[in-house]
Automatic annotation (TrEMBL):
Residues 587-781 form the Rho-GAP domain. The keyword Signal does not apply. Its main location: other. GO terms for biological process: signal transduction. The keyword Nucleotidyltransferase does not apply. It comes from Aquila chrysaetos chrysaetos. This is BCR activator of RhoGEF and GTPase. It is found in: Cell projection, Axon; Cell projection, Dendritic spine.
Length: 804
């Protein structure tokens, strides 16, 4: 009952309604429960009968083949016959005995009828199936060789193709079909659970069914452990193995539209499939969209003059709305779990969560990855990181050195069907479907020091970038300076990276190419060449220690030395009172003399002026982290009113200046929008009526203390000018709001207002996410307003405040 496919299909069909049946305890309900046992057993009988007829058909050619083996012209040798049909007769005898024993008992059914001994005996004979599995690969290779070398056996195969040999293929052709019975073993344990559920403890069958269940579960556990390394292997026509090397969900660009695909890299081909919708409880299935033999695959080369395909960009506001929905749904799931609500409610929420995560995965990536078939067809994927693009290229190029290819249309269909079993990536998307995970990622700040690198074979101009994952895709967060003409760069640069549910830190090492004509671009990528890449998992347990932790990342013979230190969000976002009489960075924004009330703080004006002088076209300005040591040096200079601060800034990387400005607002003991007014801003942005919202938000803004308002309006004008260069610096209004929103609005810890019902608590992670997104929306609202009608005195103070 373990190895035959049809038996479990029918058994499963009869078992499904049982999960919808309540466990009965009263006498009438007990009678109904016992009656259900008969229906299950009747289904088993019907499917066993079909299965036995299939085994008989499979064994039909074995007898004449054995007879011919003793003649002078054998079709197959006795050893080949034994190998190909190994344990099939034994399987037939086992199931025949089971069927002959079960049939009369069901025919003479009574509630006291015993069947447990039959299931117990059947389970005890699972060792025959183990032998069948162990022999499978040899049997399959032998059958393939016989078909190719023996014309008579090939003719037998053709004659049997529509009836007898079809069954042969079902058991022996492609490993994916072999593992279907193993799936049925898993389902059979559910059926035994049902039989036990409706079998009183006092019934003689109860201990026997328990024993059968135990044996089946132990067998399934052991067989899965043994065959897992073989699950990803398939036999191709020449007797070699087609193995799955890598698979992933990716976004394909089809006629200007984004399509979610599941991509599979095998040892000899690259296959793109679409996951079909499950209808009527059917199992998961794939539809092959296209494939390219690795022998025919190349990466499309892009000339400078050639236009990169138009990529449909999704507005940042829409992506942010998806993130808000994801956080809210996760919050709802946790609340329902704490309230012990029914599983149906939670399942509905999980379905919504999966839909939103899939949509975010579909809409977020914008980096082109193109593959080309030498027959003329090209395909474009969109991914989020240069790391993934390089990884796919490396894997494909490595395999192209040693692959051969042969694939018929029938084999393609069977290969596509097998992808359900072979896939290693099951969830959409991979990294953010974590509502049941005890560790959904880190929230806070990660300080990273990139020390040095060794292992380069020749002198180059080298730099590194750092990426972390957020909401399922990776974002570039930092970049070291270029270390010129060296094989052993010593950067020793520190960066502070904000984490939002992050689980992985990636580092990519590039060679800077100053002569753009020397390199040919692929996929419209940067001409800088990737020299190595690696990643480390951000383990919350390991990062609990507040001390620096040193690590070495190995990448293609290159080793990069790093130090990391994590500060959780609850500590990193805590505003602390300034210990200095001069205030933060030598400035007290909310405590100024009457003469100073018309001034924007010196540090704010100096940083803004320098950024507008040479940083407006810097890609990722305000988003990419500056070197932490430079930021601290600049902070110290402002703290002591160093007169040489302008000279320091002119010689410093512009990202460090941007980081200094952000740090100033973050270290204010009270936010620019004040603790008192913050809750009102959070409530005002949630208003649905646009007229009421504008009136509320503008009145609140004008209620700020004059120094705060003056400083904010000055900064607001600057950020709008930065966004005007979005086509170059890639910083939209929304990106800027994401960076500055929490910095300008985050309240002191004691005043943090999180709109949550005390009787329905939400997790720290979700509460922070929702509050941060609210802060982003507040700043974005003001950034998107064309004009802000302020009193003339306050606007004039901005226009004419130029004193130091």
């Amino acid at each position: 009952f373990i190895v035959r496919p049809h038996f479990f299909q029918s058994l499963w069909k009869y078992s499904i309604p049982l999960y919808q049946v309540k466990h009965f305890s009263s006498e009438p309900d007990l009678e109904k429960g016992l009656e259900m046992r008969k229906w299950v057993l009747s289904g088993i009988l019907a499917s066993e009968e079909t299965y036995l007829s299939h085994l008989e058909a499979l064994l039909l050619p074995m007898k004449p083949l054995k007879a011919a083996a003793t003649t002078s012209q054998p079709v197959l040798t006795s050893q080949q016959i034994e190998t190909i049909f190994f344990k099939v007769p034994e399987l037939y005898e086992i199931h025949k005995e089971f069927y002959d024993g079960l049939f009369p008992r069901v025919q003479q059914w009574s509630h006291q009828q015993r069947v447990g001994d039959l299931f117990q005996k059947l389970a005890s004979q699972l060792g025959v199936y183990r032998a069948f599995v162990d022999n499978y690969e040899v049997a399959m290779e032998t059958a393939e060789k016989c078909c190719q070398a023996n014309a008579q056996f090939a003719e037998i195969s053709e004659v049997m193709s529509w009836y007898l040999f079809l069954m042969f293929l079902r058991l022996f052709f492609f490993t994916a079909l072999l593992y279907k019975p193993v799936d049925r073993v898993t389902r059979s344990t559910l059926v035994l659970h049902d039989l036990l559920k409706h079998t009183p403890v006092s019934h003689p069958d109860h201990p026997l069914l328990q024993d059968a269940l135990r044996i089946s579960q132990n067998f399934l556990s052991s067989i899965n452990e043994e065959i897992t390394p073989r699950r990803q292997s398939m036999t191709v026509k020449k007797g070699e193995h087609r193995q799955l090397l890598k698979d992933s969900f990716m976004v394909e660009l089809v006629e200007g539209a984004r399509k979610l695909r599941h991509v599979f890299l095998f040892t000899d081909l690259f296959l793109c499939a679409k996951l079909k919708k499950q209808i009527g409880g059917k199992s998961q299935q794939y539809d092959c969209k296209w494939y390219i033999p690795l022998t025919d695959l190349s990466f499309q080369m892009v000339d400078e003059s050639e236009a990169v395909p138009n990529i449909p960009l999704v507005p940042d506001e829409e992506l942010d709305a998806m993130k808000i929905k994801i956080s809210q749904i996760k919050n709802d799931i946790q609340r329902e779990k704490r309230a012990n609500k029914g599983s149906k409610v939670i399942e509905r929420l999980k379905k919504k969560l999966s839909e939103q995560e899939s949509l975010l995965l579909l809409m977020s990536p914008n980096m082109a990855f193109r593959v080309h078939n030498r027959n003329g067809k090209s395909y474009t994927f969109l991914i989020s990181s240069d790391y993934e693009r390089a990884e796919w290229r490396e894997n494909i190029r490595e395999q192209q050195k040693k692959c051969d290819f042969s694939l018929t249309s029938v084999e393609l269909q069977m290969l596509t069907n097998s992808c359900v079993k072979l896939q290693t990536v099951h969830n959409i998307p991979l990294t953010i479907n974590k509502e049941d995970d005890e560790s959904p990622g880190l929230y806070g700040f990660l300080n990273v020091i990139v020390h040095s690198a060794t292992g380069f074979k020749q002198s180059s101009n080298l730099y590194c970038t750092l990426e972390v994952d957020s909401f399922g895709y990776f974002v570039n967060k930092a970049k070291t300076r270029v270390y010129r003409d060296t094989t052993e760069p010593n950067w020793n640069e520190e960066f502070e990276i904000e984490l939002e549910g992050s689980q992985t830190l990636r580092i990519l090492c590039y060679e800077k190419c100053y002569n753009k004509t020397k390199l040919t671009k692929e996929d419209g990528e940067s001409t800088d060449r990737i020299m190595g890449k690696g990643q480390i998992q951000l383990d919350p347990q390991a990062l609990q220690d507040k001390d620096w932790q040193r690590t070495v990342i190995s990448m293609n013979g290159v080793e990069v030395k790093l130090s990391v230190k994590f500060t959780s969000r609850e500590f990193s976002l805590k505003r602390m009172p300034s210990r200095k009489q001069t205030g933060v960075f030598g400035v007290k924004i909310a405590i100024v003399t009457k003469r100073e009330r018309s001034k924007v703080p010196y540090i704010v004006r100096q940083c803004v002026e320098e950024i507008e002088r040479r940083g407006m076209e810097e890609v990722g300005i305000y988003r990419v982290s500056g070197v932490a040591t430079d930021i601290q040096a600049l902070k110290a200079a402002f703290d002591v009113n160093n007169k040489d601060v302008s000279v320091m800034m002119s010689e410093m990387d512009v990202n460090a200046i941007a980081g200094t400005l952000k740090l100033y607002f973050r270290e204010l003991p009270e936010p620019l929008f004040t603790d008192e007014l913050y809750p009102n801003f959070a409530e005002g942005i949630a208003l649905s009526d646009p007229v009421a919202k504008e009136s509320c938000m503008l009145n609140l803004l004008l209620s700020l203390p004059e120094p705060n308002l003056v400083t904010f309006l000055f900064l607001l004008d600057h950020l709008k000018r930065v966004a005007e260069r979005e086509s170059v610096n890639k910083m939209s209004l929304h990106n800027l709001a994401t960076v500055f929103g929490p910095t300008l609005l985050r309240p002191s810890e004691k005043d943090s207002k999180i709109p949550a019902n005390p009787t329905q608590p939400i997790t720290m992670t979700d509460s922070w996410s929702l509050e941060v997104m609210s802060q982003v929306q507040v700043l974005l609202y003001f950034l998107q307003l064309e004009t802000i009608p302020t009193p003339d005195s306050k606007r004039q103070s901005i226009l004419f405040s130029t004193e130091v």
